[in-house]
Write a structure and sequence with these properties.
The protein is an alpha+beta fold and 167 residues long. The chain has a single domain, classed as NADH Oxidase (3-Layer(aba) Sandwich), CATH 3.40.109. It is built from five helices and four strands. It has a four-stranded antiparallel beta sheet, with helices on both faces. The mean pLDDT is 95.
């Protein structure tokens, strides 16, 4: 494993957290990383909703069938995009989501990506809990905290998925 890429390979889905809170510095760093993502024509259609309130984390867990770890998280970030800013909001917000996940790994935090876009009922439930305007899409929820579990860094490289010069 190339040491220069270790942070990427160390990014794993972490669903168990300690009860430590996140510092404002770490939260800002995560959001800065998200906003450092590339976006089509530099339109930056993203918006981020940070959630540390335990009641809202529980409500989000109830709204997302794979979000059962959310009540134990220190923070959730809803990554949202405004289609009126860019028709490429899904791609742009996906890049922002991945940047936040890699930044979390770099800060020694654990995180997991919970998909929302593509499931209208889930997206609407999250929109209602967080007061997100109807015109804004909800791409993902990120569950973040200090990890209470460890997973080894790994690559999932599969040469069978690589096609050179043509399919």
């Amino acid at each position: 494993m190339d040491e220069r890429l270790k942070i990427i390979f160390s990014r794993r889905s972490i669903r168990k957290y300690t009860d430590r809170t996140l510092s404002e510095t770490d939260i800002t760093s995560l959001l800065e990383a998200g906003m450092a993502a590339p976006s089509a024509s530099n339109q930056k259609p993203w918006h981020f909703v940070t959630v540390a309130d335990k009641q809202k984390l529980k409500a989000l867990a109830d709204a997302h069938r794979y979000g059962k770890m959310l009540p134990g998280a220190a923070l959730a970030i809803a990554v949202c995009g405004d289609p009126s800013i860019s028709s490429w909001w899904v791609q742009d917000c996906t890049a922002a989501t991945e940047n936040i996940l890699i930044a979390a790994a770099g800060l020694g935090l654990g995180a997991v990506w919970l998909g929302c876009h593509g499931d209208p009922e889930r997206e609407q439930a999250i929109r209602e809990i967080l007061g997100i305007p109807e015109r804004v899409g909800v791409l993902s929820l990120l569950s973040i905290g200090h990890p209470a579990e460890e997973k080894e860094a790994r690559t999932q490289y599969d040469p069978a998925r690589v096609h050179v010069d043509a399919w």
